[in-house]
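Quick one: structure for this chain?
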Amino acid sequence: MAWLVRDTTVLASLEVADTFRDRLRGLLGRDRLDGALLLRPARSVHTIGMRFAIDVAFCDSDLRVLRISSLVPNRVVRPVRNGCVVIEAERGAFERWGLAVGDELAVHGEAPSPPPSPGAPRSGGRRWQEARHRLTRVPGARRGVRGATVSRPLVRRAVRPTAPA
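Got it. Here's what it folds into:
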């Protein structure tokens, strides 16, 4: 189990969501949250479909708090410039912890994530191997001209050889 720490004070137990699936699920389907949830990487959040109000802290890569917000269900927040990490907790938790903009936080007791296996898709990364089409430039077309790129299939169809006559 991981812990959210400021200086030498433990603020809360912490769940770390650093895979695409964990970030996608987030707090959806829960009635409450004990402790806090750390979303990494994340620059913005939403509360669409959530059952309770939350406090949200947007942090930079060094876990320095950049902005704090309170969100009720069915709201969307704009992305925060230089934000890399989001910490979510039940509404009122940040006030109890005395969390303020500029505080430097740390995560202790987090298990290191295993290195990705070769060829495995990266979480949150953009791998276009599964795309069925790609954009290719039409010979002679100028940049900025509408229709300069066309969609061509990645997989070519097999052509059966014809029997000799």
